[in-house]
Amino acid sequence: MINATYLPRLMPVILLMSILAACDQPSDTRTEMLSGPMETDILDDMPPPPPPPDFKPPAPAAAQTREHIAVSYSFALEVPADQIEAIQKKHLAECGKLGCKVVSTSIFRWQETSIANSSIRLSPKSFQSFAGIVSAAPATVSSRTEKAEDQTLPVLEVEKRLEPKIALRDRLKGMLTDPGTTNAADLAAVEKELAQVQGDIETTIAQQKHLRTLTETVLVDISYQGKEAEVAGLNFAPVTLAITNAGQTVIRSAASLVSFLATMLPWIPLIAFVGWTVRQGLRRWRAYNARSGRLQPVPAPTP
Asked: pLDDT 10s digit of each residue in the chain, 303 long?
C-alpha cells in the first residue's frame, strides 16, 4: 500500500505512464477514443488534403462518350391527284429556303393513279418548320414514322483509325526531309508507303464526313398519294375509270384495224394478180374441155 505522503509526488509519473500507454495503442483504438461528437467536430475543422500535382479531374460522362445518332422521318401524304406535282414542287422550294439538300425526287402516273416521292436532308433545327409545311393543307398526313440509329461505334472506330494514320504520315514526311535519308531505294520505299497512307487517310476522312452527314442532319422521306375528289361524300373515280377504259378499248380496237389494213395494203396487188391468174387458167381449161367434148353440159332438172 502506498503511503498518502508520497501520492502527490507520484502523480506526474502516473500521468506520464498513461500518456505513453495511450501512444503505444493501435490506430484503431485511438479512432475509437475519438468516436462520438468530438470526432465529427475535429473532422469538420480539418481542411481537405491538397490534390497531387499531376491530378486532373475526370471529364463528365457526356463529354467522354458523345452519342452520334442518325435520325430519319417518313411522311405519307394524301393530296389531290391533280395537284400532286405542284405540291411536291412547293415543298421542295420551301426546303431550299431552309437550306436543305435534295437527295432524290420521283413522280409516277398511270391511268388515274399518281404517286410521287421526295427524299431530303436538313438540319435538326429546321425540321419542325419543314414538318409544319409538309403537314399543311391541302395535304393530309396519313402516317408519320421516326427512326433513330446509333452511329456512335462507327464514328469512334473511324476516329481511332484516323489518328495513327495521320501520325504515321507525319513521320514519313519527316523521313523524306531528313538529311540522313539519302539512299534512293529508301526514299522510294518511303514515298510509296506515304502515298498508300495518304490514300487510306483520304478514304477514312470520306467515311468520317459521311457519318457526320448521317448524324448531323435529319433525313426526311415524303411519299405523295393522289386522292380523287369526292362529290357529296361519294367517290366517282371508279365510274370515271370504267368510262375511260371503255373509250380506250374502242380506240385500241380501231388502232388494231388500222394496223391490220396498213399491214395488208402492200400485199393487195399481189393477191389480186394471183386471183386473176387462177381465174384465167380455169376459164381456159373449161374452154379447152368444151372443144374436145370431154366436158358435157349438165342436164336441166325436170319439174
From this structure: 444 454 555 555 566 556 555 555 544 444 444 344 444 444 455 555 555 555 555 555 444 567 899 999 999 999 988 889 999 999 999 999 999 999 999 998 876 678 999 999 999 999 999 999 999 988 999 999 999 999 999 999 998 999 999 998 888 888 888 777 667 787 888 888 889 989 999 999 999 999 999 999 999 999 999 876 655 555 556 666 677 778 888 898 889 988 988 888 888 888 888 888 988 888 888 887 777 765 455 555 565
Which residues, listed in sequence order, are joined to residue 117 by a DSSP beta bridge?
106, 223
- What does the alpha-carbon distance between residue 121 and residue 221 come to, in Å, rounded to a whole number? 9
Closest by CA position to 69, among listed 215, 220, 218, 219:
215
3-state SS record for 200-225: HHHHHHHHHHHHHHHHHCEEEEEEEE
CB 131 within 8 A of CB 141: no
- Other CB atoms within a 10 A radius of the CB of residue 144 amount to 13
Chain-centroid distance, C-alpha 128: 19
* Cβ pair 15, 8 in contact under 8 A: no
C-alpha 287 chain-centroid distance: 90
C-alpha torsion angle, residues 22, 26, 27, 33 (rounded to 10): -50
- Whether residue 138 contacts residue 80, with contact meaning beta carbons closer than 8 Å, is answered with yes
pTM of the model: 0.54
Helix runs in the chain, H state only: 7-24, 27-33, 37-45, 61-64, 84-97, 124-135, 152-177, 184-216, 237-264, 268-291
